[in-house]
Amino acid sequence: MSNPPPADIQFRAQNQLSELFAALDSGTGREVQRMLHTLSPQSIAQLLESSPPRIRHILWKLIDPEVEGEVLPELSYEVKSQILATMDTEEMVAAMEGLDADDVADILQQLPDRVMGEVLAAMTEADRLRVERVLAFDEETAGGLMDTDTISVRPNLTLDVVLRYLRRHEQLPPSTDNLFVVNRRDQYIGLLPLSRLLTTDPSVTVREVMNTDVEPIPADFPDTEVARLFQKYDWITAPVVDDNNRLLGRITIDDVVDVIREDADHSLMSMAGLDEEEDTFATVRRTAPRRAVWLGINLLTALLASWVINLFQGTIDKVVALAVLMPIVASMGGVAGSQTLTVVIRGMALGQIGRSNLSWLLTRELGSAVLNALLWSLAMAVIAALWFDDITIAAIILAAMVINLITAAIAGAILPVALRAIRIDPALAGGVALTTVTDVVGFMSFLGLATLFYA
Question: In which order are the strands placed within the sheet that holds 217-218?
Answer without folding.
Answer: 217-218, 237-241, 247-252
